[in-house]
Structure formats: structure tokens, C-alpha cells
Amino acid sequence: MTMNREGRPTTPDEVGSTAPDTFTGNRALRIEEPVIFDVGTAEATGVDLPEPDGAVKSRLGGLERSEPLDLPGLAEPEAMRHYVRLSQKNYAIDMGLYPLGSCTMKHNPRLNEKMARLPGFADVHPLQPVSTVPGALELIAECARWLCVSTGMEAVAMSPKAGAHGELCGMMAIKAAHAAHGENRSIVLVPESAHGTNPATAALLGYKVVAIPAREDGTVDPAAVIERLSDDVAGIMLTNPNTCGLFERDIVEIAKAVHEAGAYFYCDGANLNAILGKARPGDLGVDCMHINLHKTFSTPHGGGGPGAGPVVLSERLKAFAPLPYVKMTAAGPELIETPADAEADGTKPFGRMTAFHGQMGMFVRAMTYMLSHGADGLRQASEDAVLNANYVRAGLQDVMSLPFGERPYMHEVLFDDSFLDDTGVSTLDFAKAMIDEGFHPMTMYFPLVVHGAMLIEPTESESKASLDLFVATLRDLVMRAKRGEVDRFKGAPWYAPRRRLDETAAARHPVLKWTPPEPQTADAAE
Amino acid sequence: MRYLPLTDTDRADMLQRIGVAAIDDLFVDIPKDVRLKDLVDLPKAAGEMSVERQMSRMAAKNVSAGSVPFFVGAGAYRHHVPATVDHLIQRSEFLTAYTPYQPEISQGTLQTLFEFQTQVAGLTGMDVANASMYDGSTATAEAVLMAHRLTRRKKAVLSGGLHPQYRAVVKNLSDMAGDELVCLAPDPAGTEALLEEIDDDTSCVVVQTPSFYGQLTDLTAIAEKAHEKKALLIAVVTEVVSLGALQPPGAMGADIVVAEGQSIGNSLNFGGPYVGLFATRQKYVRQMPGRLAGLTTDAEGRRGYVLTLSTREQHIRREKATSNICTNSGLCALAFTIHMTLLGAAGLKRLATLNHQSAVQLADALSAVPGVEVLNESFFNEFTIRTPKPAAKVIEALAAKDILGGVPVSRLEPGNADLADLIVVAATEINSDEDRAAYADALKEVLA
């Protein structure tokens, strides 16, 4: 979410370092680590497997691999060091504040990890007999129940694998519902501030995307929606709270207008963590909403996944939920897996999103999180997330610039780059300077509705002391930018494992895998 | 609440600093009549002990694969994963990092993705691989969409050896997008006439090898016919360990290879999270979905990695993106890479051999059971048997004897009488001689 479309410098400046060189290139605890292809060998291995039985006759039908396997191996101690050293080149929530707006980098409780590794959850196969997995089905049903109750929705499609996959699922349910009514609508409305996944999802299903401009205050104007509604509009994809950190205050009116036009209301639930326990999407007129379990419910982001994107559905859409789903009956949980099962259950699933039953490992973690918090803790977490964001706003609003003014925000606060006017420092430079101070930068250049956006989401996991240091640091950086210390920013980061990386060169001549230095292959020469 | 650091004193101080009287003054944009006054109707917060008890109670109701002789495959496989893998992926720096948008402080994730991409390309015999997809089934659907973009055609042909749930995932997306699809009938014997279905409108032909039924296919002729018609061959691999023993699809002419990578580094997890592998030819890289890590240099000229070619992606291209994918399976990909590094070429080759031998021994043992027929001439670690009784009943009866004996085809292909007596059976390195003997003995009793 932190890439921009324009104006982003991606070629590093020529700035030298004054520190002395070392023989190894290492810098104390920061150890340079080659790729495994530079150090591993084809015969080394870190796994002891039994000797194959020479007497067993092969039945591979003449399709034995003839090409050598070009996979280097490492003995266990070497592998351990390799990956530990690499890990030390990452920033992580467990190291400090990670204020990526819209990404919700909250604490990942380790109890969740422990529960996900119980053999009864981790070591069960999706296709072993249903009679041998009643507890797994119960877990899915219970997780679904908590999600429905806390969002005020009727049903939930559990199988989508991540947020964008959930969006796809929700929009498919909408498409299926229109089809069931004999309609084939072609337009989906998407506000300009939406995540890129929204228009990409709509386009994947063949919809024409019509953008809704944001009004002055950063929210969607119901008049702008009504103006674009017609009997060819299938639905609207609205993020609430939106990506400017603002609750769409006219949402009920928008939902009503959308429904009157015979369309459906898809809510992007990426920011559900701001309102859980404070308001229920079901009461706002939402027809379907994906929930990022890796945001609101603390399942780890893992350097880019896995996520999970269950989709809660309204009464109007619930019959179309994809296969499979788990139904609670008096006799216990029942897995509805095939079209025939569904017909017997009286539903009309639109199809299947994925093989098997979805991200079970993530359901277990989310369930553990929900049980730990309870209804009271979930509400408190939302309140603390909003309190923390507003505390950061209050601490910075006199020195940074708020495009939508000094007003309450939800769980994240959006600044633009006008406070950097005439300093020669860009949003990117400012973000890179935060790295030197030991903070992960905020989301930058997103949303696209303001110039040089900086979107800060501290989450409820931060203490007051942590926020105080963060605010003080940013205030200091602002003062330095205004004092003309441009080099500090242009050269940043100075102290990270790498100085600024050349993204332009990487894209111009993509090298996407390791190739042996000699002889040169076509890839490397390109 | 143990996860919330703010104290009531903090909260009061902070509200004062913000300049509001109460927390609800920060929620004023939510219309009053839809603001919740009370807690939702769910239990209150619970401590670790209580939560652990509740979760363990549910977990204990399941029969875990490690507790019985276990022969279930059909797209997910139980292998031994070295302890090192789980230790490393639980390191805070990997577990609790986001997608590596700030490359200077994400070199750990980026370099492992670069290693992952190189390993996947090598395994599949392709030029380039991406940084992972959700799983094998969604990767297959994305591969079909990519083929449509590249060929500007809209008709995919799916082999009857494709996993039925993969077929359903492709069909769903295809139907929704209004594309054409030809699905060949289920093909347990591996005798379908696939070549005849490839014509001038075909965008791609999708073939799984080893097939859902365990059949091995030489893809060369299919690739030739596809290329003659300017269509693409998409090879699907659901058991990635097989690539340690079998000719990789890239060497047989595949244009896109997608695979389920769960077998390496990842647990069964009742179906997810898994990790989709996606590899293709260099010339198609700009139509690939998903993230890519690429090599570059930093301002001091040192080697480093960044996410690259992002102009294909949704956060830049929005409705013109190659896919809507954002989050992938980063941590599962890391587990894959670590396990693969521990194995190395020598280890993977031996692992593949052990799997094959385990399956050969099991096939011999089961075909000795009166009435049981093994359908496959050749296979890797999975094959199909025909039983004289309905397969679903046989599997239930085996489960009652604490043997998880495979997947009845009727579970995934219901209502097809020709398939009602077939069981897909997998054997891996985890199965012992005793496991295999116990299965054969139990099957004999069940069929008696």
C-alpha cells in the first residue's frame, strides 16, 4: 500500500559513508549474508533420511528426471545461521511501532501460534473422513458465529484466502444474486480513495469501474453516489472507515440509495478494527464485507501472508455463499461440501473459491484472539486504537498538515506533504529518515486523494510512552526538514542494513532469480 | 486485558490532550442510532489458561494424522518437516513483519523470497517464479486468466485428471468472468483424448501431473499440439515432492507451471494456509500475477533486493492490474524455502525416492487384498484403487478401525456411478512397514 503512481524518486542519491570499511563487509551485529546459491552445495543436506531400499522396483513409467536438480543444501547449523542472519535484516512489530496505515500492524499474541500448532488443528487433513474431524468443523462454526454476531450479519463465507480473495467472493455473491433475479448489471462504483484491490476485483469479474470522487472533507457524498446510480449498477465497493481514517457518516443514506437502485453494498472491511464493538456493519446496510483476519484479528502478516478473508453476508446474499460451509445442527456441525449437499440445505452457492475449506490455521488464531478479548476486550481494543490515532494527531497537527482539518479520526490519521513545501524533502525522504530513528515508516502515497499522503495507524498495541517517543521523533524530523537539513533526508536511511535501493534499475532489468556467475545465461545478460 | 498497554490513567490523560471529554466524542461520525450502546452478545475476556482449555477441547475431538496409519493425499500430503523450519518461521522478524514495502529494512524477507523464486524456478524447470500465491487451486485459476491475456483467447481446456476442486475453482472464476471452458470427464485411467480438444480458439490446456488419480503423463505431445495451435500448456502439480524424482514440466514444454507447495515445510492445517507456486517463461513475466522480488543495488553499490515490476499490480494499476492479489503466502513460502534448503538436491532426491518406494510397497500390499485392483501402471506416491464395495463406506469402515485410508473419489465427484468404487491412496516417507501392513490387513477385513 505504500507505492505511489507518480513523482516518487526511486534511484538512490550518491552519498558516501564516512565510517571505515571492514574486511568482511560486516558491521558488528549486522552480518552480510550471501544467497544460499553462493554457499550451499548439491551434496550438502540438513535432513537425515533413511537409505532407500534398493530392492524396490521403480514404477515412474520412464518419466524419471533427467535434468540435474540445481538446489543447494546446507547442514542444519549453516541453515540456522543463514536464516537467523537474514531475519535480523527485517523490521517487525515485535521490535517497535509499525504504523502502516490501513495494514493494522498490531501485536500478534503467541498463544494464537501455540493453539494453531495443536495436532488436532495442525495435523488434520482437509479430506480425511468428516467423522474424524468434528472439532475442526466446530472451530470453523464457532469462529463464524463470533464474526457474525460482532458484525451483525447473517452468514459468513469462511473460505476466501485473503482480503482481495474475500473481495472477489463478495462481488461474486453480488453477481450471483443479480443473475438469480435475471439481471446482468455491468457497473460497479468505487470511491477514489479505495484500495487498489477494489477496482482490480471488479474488473476481474468483467465489471466497468466508475470512480466516485471524494468530497472536500475526504468522505463520499451521497449525492455523488445517487447521481451515478442506475439500473445498470451492480453495487458499490465502499471502505468504512475509509482509507483517510474517516467514518463515512452518510453511510446509512448511501446504503439506502444503493438498495433502492436494486444494487448491493460491498463494504471493504480492511478497517473493521476501528469500529468492532462500537457499531455493526449489519446495522449500516452492508450486504457483504470481507474481514482481514490478519488485520483486525491479529493473525501474523508473516512478511506478506498468509492472510484470511472471510466474507460476512446479509440476509439478501447469504444463500449464495460459496462451497464449502459448515452448518450447525442439533447433532453437531455439518460440512456442506458439494452442490448436492447445498441443494438439500436449500442454498444456492455460486461456486467454489478454493480447494478445501479455507485458512484453518488463521481461523484458529483469530478464534484464540476473540476468546481472549471477549466482547468487552474487542470493544476496548477498538477504542484504544482510535484513541491512539487521535493522540498522535493531537501531537502532530500543529507541525504537520491535516488535509481534512483538526477533527476526530478513527483508527488512523492522514497527513499530506504540504508541511514539507519548500523544504526539498519529499514524503519518501521523510519516511526513510524515520527508519534511521528506529521506526517503520507509515503508509505513504496512499490514499491517492491527497498529495504525498502519510497514513499513520498506531493500533491499540502501543503504550502511551511509545506514542510519546514516536510523536517527539516526528516533531524533531519536521523541525530538521524545516531547518534545511536536506542531506539527512535525501541520504536516508543511513543506518539500515541497506542504504536506499535502486527500484528503477530493478524494474528496468529484472533479475528475479539467482544465476551462476559463469557462464552467463540469457537471463543475466538481459 | 493483557494485550492492551493503556491504563485508565493513560486513557484519561490522552483524552485530555486530544481535547475531548469522553472516548465516544471520537466516534461522533458514527450516526447515533447505529452506535452500539451495549456489548455484543458474546462472552467476556478470558485469560490464557481458560482460552487454552477451550481451544484444546475442540482440537482433542479430531483424529490427528500422526496418531494413526495415515494414507490421505489428494492435494495435501503429510511429510516430515524438520524442527528447524517451525523454529525459524516463528522468529519475530519473519513472523511479525509486513509485506516488504520498505526494502531497506526488509532485506530478510526479500532475500528469502529471491531464494524461494530461484528454488521454484529450478524445481519446475522454468525461467522465473513469483513470490507465491494463496495455494495451488487459486494459482491454477490465475494461470488460466494469464493465458487468456497472453493469447487474447477465452477458452481453457481442463484435463479430466485435474483435481475436482481445482476444476471447480477454475470453473467458478471462468463462469463469473464469462469465459469459455471445456472440462473433460474424470479420467482415472489416464486415457483421455486431450489432444483432440485443442483447437484454434483454445487459450490454454490445463494438465495435472501426477494426476488427481496418480497417473503420470508425458506432457511433450500435449505441449507440441498446444503450441501448434498457439495455445499455452499449464501444468499443475499438487505434490511438489514428485519434482525430486520426475521430469519437471518445464522440460516437457509447459508454458506456465503452478503447484501446491504445502508438502515442503508446511503442515496439513485442515486445508490452509498453504502456498501456491507459480512459474513461467521469461517472455511472459510481465503478465504474471503476484509479487516479485528482484535484485538491485543500494546507494553504496551493495547487493540488495526490492519488490519489482509492480506496475503489473493492483496498488499501481488498479482496474488494469494482472490480478487483484495483494497478500500472498509469505510465511508458508519461507517455510518452503527453509525446508528446501535443508533438503538440498541430495535430500529432495532421497525424499522423493522414499515416497515412491513407500507407494510401490503399499500398492503391492493392497493389490494382494482379494477384490482390490490398482488402476495405475505408473505413479509417484499416490494411486487409485478399485474396491468391490462402495469406496465411501470402505473408508468409513477403515476409519472405525483407526486407519485413514485415502479419499473416496465419490466425495469430490458425487453422483458419478463409475467412480463410486474408487479410492485415491497416498503413501509418503512417514509410513512405516507396520502402517502399510495394518492398512492391507484392515482392508481385507473390511472387504471380507
From TrEMBL, chain A:
Family annotation (Pfam families): Aminotran_5, GcvP2_C
A molecular function GO annotation: pyridoxal phosphate binding
Domain Aminotransferase class V intervals: 173-302
GO cellular component, one term: cytosol
Catalytic function, reaction form: N(6)-[(R)-lipoyl]-L-lysyl-[glycine-cleavage complex H protein] + glycine + H(+) = N(6)-[(R)-S(8)-aminomethyldihydrolipoyl]-L-lysyl-[glycine-cleavage complex H protein] + CO2
Enzyme Commission identifier(s): 1.4.4.2
Gene3D superfamilies, sorted: 6.20.440.10, Aspartate Aminotransferase, domain 1, Type I PLP-dependent aspartate aminotransferase-like (Major domain)
GO biological process: glycine decarboxylation via glycine cleavage system
Keywords, comma-separated and alphabetical: Oxidoreductase, Pyridoxal phosphate
Function: The glycine cleavage system catalyzes the degradation of glycine. The P protein binds the alpha-amino group of glycine through its pyridoxal phosphate cofactor; CO(2) is released and the remaining methylamine moiety is then transferred to the lipoamide cofactor of the H protein.
Record protein name field: glycine dehydrogenase (aminomethyl-transferring)
Organism: Rhodobium orientis
From TrEMBL, chain B:
Pfam families attached to this UniProt entry: GDC-P
Example GO BP: nucleoside metabolic process
CDD domains, A to Z: GDC-P
Record Gene3D superfamilies: Aspartate Aminotransferase, domain 1 (3.90.1150.10), Type I PLP-dependent aspartate aminotransferase-like (Major domain) (3.40.640.10)
Keyword terms, alphabetized: Oxidoreductase
Keyword Oxidoreductase assigned: yes
Enzymatic class: oxidoreductase
Enzyme Commission designation: 1.4.4.2
Subunit structure: The glycine cleavage system is composed of four proteins: P, T, L and H. In this organism, the P 'protein' is a heterodimer of two subunits.
Family statement drawn from the similarity comment of this UniProt entry: Belongs to the GcvP family. N-terminal subunit subfamily.
Stated role: The glycine cleavage system catalyzes the degradation of glycine. The P protein binds the alpha-amino group of glycine through its pyridoxal phosphate cofactor; CO(2) is released and the remaining methylamine moiety is then transferred to the lipoamide cofactor of the H protein.
Protein name: Probable glycine dehydrogenase (decarboxylating) subunit 1
Annotated source species: Rhodobium orientis
Taxon lineage: Bacteria, Pseudomonadati, Pseudomonadota, Alphaproteobacteria, Hyphomicrobiales
